Amino acid sequence: GDSVTQMEGPVTLSEEAFLTINCTYTATGYPSLFWYVQYPGEGLQLLLKATKADDKGSNKGFEATYRKETTSFHLEKGSVQVSDSAVYFCALSEGTDKLIFGTGTRLQVFP
Amino acid sequence: ETGVTQTPRHLVMGMTNKKSLKCEQHLGHNAMYWYKQSAKKPLELMFVYNFKEQTENNSVPSRFSPECPNSSHLFLHLHTLQPEDSALYLCASSRALGEGAQETQYFGPGTRLLVL
After folding, report:
1. What is the per-residue pLDDT across A44-58, written as a single tens digit (0 to 9) for each?
2. CA–CA separation, A95 and A80 (whole Å)
3. 8 Å CB contact of A101 and B43
4. Residues of A with CB under 8 A from a CB of B
C-alpha cells in the first residue's frame, strides 16, 4: 500500500541555518504531496502542497519539489527561525481525499 | 485559529467510563474526519464523514463510536477504552469529498486523552 517515510528527528539547528527534512513516498499512481506543520499545543496546519511531478510548493520561506524520479518531496528552508520549531509531517493522497502521513519530524531551532 | 474547535482539550478517564469528544467547524465544510495521533507513529485516520454520511471506518474498534448530526459537528463517543487508546485525537474538516478532488484538510487542536 501507499506509505510515507520521513527522516527521524529531532532535527536541531541554530537560528539562520539551512533546513532539509527528507521525505520519500511509495504510491501506485500519481499522488498529491503535502507538508503539514504542528506547533506546540495545536493541530496540524497545511504548510504547502504539490499536485504533480516537478511542481514546487512554497509558503513562509519553506519549499518542496515533487520529484517523481526519486519519489521524494524534501522540505527546505534557507534560514530557519526559532518560531519554526514544530513537528513537520509529510503526507500523500491519491485522489481519494484520504491523507497518508509520515511519522513526523521534530525541528528544534535555538537562538 | 483554523476554524475547527475541539472540546475538551484534555481528558482523563477510567476504563469503565463513558465520555464524548466534540468537534465543531465554522468553515462551511461538508467533510469531517477523526484521526488518532500516538507517539512515534503516523497519524491514523479513524473515520470520515461526507455530508453526514460515514464513508470510511478504518478498522476502528467498536469502543469508539462516531456521530455526525450535521455537517458542522462531529462527536466521538468513548466506552470501555484501554490504556493503549491514550493518544491525541484530532478532528479535521474539508470541503465535500469527490472522486479525484483534492481538498485541504483543516485540523483542530486535538483532545489529549489519558486512559487509566
Report:
1. 999 999 999 999 999
2. 32
3. yes
4. 4, 32, 36, 41-46, 49, 51, 89, 93, 95-104
Grid coordinates given for B109 = 487542536
- Collapsing DSSP to helix, strand or coil, B84 comes out as helix
* Binary contact (A89, B31; C-beta < 8 A): no
- B41 touches A at CB < 8 Å: yes
Spatial separation of the C-alpha atoms in residues B26 and B17, rounded to whole Å: 30
Q: Which amino acid is at A7?
A: M
How far, in Å, CA of B2 to CA of B29, rounded?
12
Lowest-confidence range among A9-13, A62-66, B83-87, B102-106?
A: B102-106
pLDDT band of B52, cuts 50, 70, 90: confident
